[in-house]
TrEMBL record:
A motif ('HIGH' region) lies at residues 22-32. It is found in: Cytoplasm. GO terms for cellular component: cytosol. Keywords: Aminoacyl-tRNA synthetase, ATP-binding, Cytoplasm, Ligase, Nucleotide-binding, Protein biosynthesis. This is Glutamate--tRNA ligase.
Length: 473
């Protein structure tokens, strides 16, 4: 379901403000990357604002390295955000201020129960929300001791989360406890800090995983206690592995950095992640411009999405094939840098650019493309693998000698080179394949390669003749 249209009352719709709010406790998970993408697509596609908040209140687990990895992951994926990233920890004073304001207006109260007392109560009341004995205590009975500030949640009735994906989800208030807003040491809880931050940042749409759906009911009570507008919620199903179980390391890559290292271009990842739980008719392959035009919350399904590496490879191959050569070379350079591989030499770059049109239609990942382009990146003398050695017996080397003698005066185009090779084959009573096999081995040092004539064009006359000469000595 969607929010009521402001146009019905003659009020112009407000551009959306979305946010991505990861905890810097580890790498950027593929599920988090998809959440960020959905928020980015919705904001950018509707002329709104996309904000980034680092939820680093858990000081024991939050690390600067993880924060850096999250920012780098978003940048690699191509998701830009507005303004500077906000640190939740740095806003602790504001969180405390709101908690005390709630205590002043009666929507929260001081709780002096100790952890031991709370544990003992829970032991005697299994499966029940904790009811603080201080909820209705008068001020005169309060001791001079540290206290937590708890929300005075309604005990009767229901809290209804009107969700753009899940529909109306109802929670009985009797099942929700008076959650802690501010601990006795003055630090805010995550549940409280999230609401204050989202309100102060002007967030209008909260798009996040459906594991936060129960949190939404509790957080709504804070909005209502403060008289704040409740954002539109959209809780998206989680991502599962191909076996239908919750995604984990046993399914293979789960961190965004792992997908980058596997050589999937960012454009392909954006396309694939967008389709994990969202659809636009039967469209599977699309550009960023199309995704920005089409994406809306109504296209998000309720069922968990399944990570499918075969489909990802298909999407990746399509995007590689669609890229112009300049953009593809930039992706290759980024991939080599990210994997700490040596940068391309000027001559290797020149040869790679020449062979790209012949390779990019078939490659599904950047490593696959580079593997097929290995001949262009190699330097003489080539190391031959076992199959290449077998293809270069004395008879085959003789064929190469005949071909070498025929090549110097041939115009260096694919068609003319193929015609010259056919002429050599016919002169020796052979099929073209008998010439192509040793030629492939001599040019690449292996037998699995692109077309020999495409390789010859990419290598150029001098390098081709030099490689053929190396196998005739």
């Amino acid at each position: 379901m969607t929010a009521p249209s402001p146009l019905a009352s003659g009020v112009a719709p407000r551009p959306p403000v979305t946010r991505f709010a990861p905890s810097p406790t580890g790498y950027l998970h593929i599920g988090g990357a998809r959440t960020a993408l959905f928020n980015w697509l919705y904001a950018r596609g509707h002329g709104g604002t996309f904000l980034l908040r680092i939820e680093d209140t858990d000081r024991a687990r939050s690390t600067e390295a993880a924060s850096r990895a999250i920012l780098e992951g978003l940048q690699w994926l191509g998701l830009d955000w507005d303004g500077e990233p906000i640190s939740q920890f740095a806003r602790g004073a504001r969180h405390a201020e709101v908690a005390r304001e709630m205590m002043a207006n009666g929507s929260a109260y001081p709780c002096y129960s100790t952890p031991a007392e709370i544990e003992a109560w829970r032991a005697g009341h299994p499966h029940q929300p904790f009811l603080s004995p201080w909820r209705d205590a008068d001020a005169a009975s309060r001791p001079d001791a540290p206290y937590a500030i708890r929300l005075r949640a309604p005990r009767d009735g229901q809290t209804v989360v009107r969700d753009a994906v899940q529909g109306d989800v109802t929670f009985a208030n009797a099942e929700l406890d008076d959650m802690v807003l501010l601990r006795s040491d003055g630090t805010p809880t995550y549940m409280h800090a999230v609401v204050v931050d989202d309100h102060d940042m002007g967030v209008t749409h909260i798009i996040r995983g459906d594991d936060h759906l129960t949190n939404a009911a509790r957080q709504m009570q804070i909005y209502q206690a403060m008289g704040w507008n409740v954002p539109l919620f959209a809780h998206i199903p989680l991502i599962h592995g191909e076996d239908g179980k919750k995604l984990s390391k046993r399914h293979g890559a789960v961190g965004l950095h792992e997908f980058a290292a596997l050589g999937y271009p960012p454009a392909a990842m954006r396309n694939y992640l967008a389709r994990l739980g969202w659809s636009h008719g039967d469209d599977e392959l699309f550009s960023d411009a199309e995704a920005l035009e089409w994406f809306d919350l109504g296209g998000i399904g309720k069922a968990p999405a399944r990570l499918d590496f075969k489909k990802l490879e298909h999407v990746s191959g399509w995007h590689i094939g669609q890229m112009d050569d300049t953009a593809l070379m930039a992706e290759i350079d980024s991939f080599l840098a990210a994997t700490s591989a040596a940068p391309l030499t000027p001559i290797a770059r020149e040869r790679l650019v020449a062979i790209l049109p012949a390779l990019k239609e078939k490659a599904r990942t950047l490593p696959q493309l580079l593997d097929q382009a290995a001949f262009a990146l190699a330097e003489r003398p080539l190391a031959l693998d076992a199959k290449a050695e077998g293809a270069l017996d004395p008879v085959s080397r003789g064929i190469l000698t005949a071909l070498t003698l025929a090549l110097p005066d041939v115009r260096w185009s694919r068609d003319d080179l193929e015609a010259a090779a056919k002429a050599v084959a016919e002169a020796q009573g052979l099929g073209l394949g008998k010439v192509a096999a040793p030629l492939r081995a001599a040019l690449a040092g292996r037998t699995s390669t692109p077309s020999v004539f495409d390789m010859m064009v990419a290598l150029g006359r001098d390098e081709t003749l030099a490689r053929l000469g190396d196998q005739q000595g």
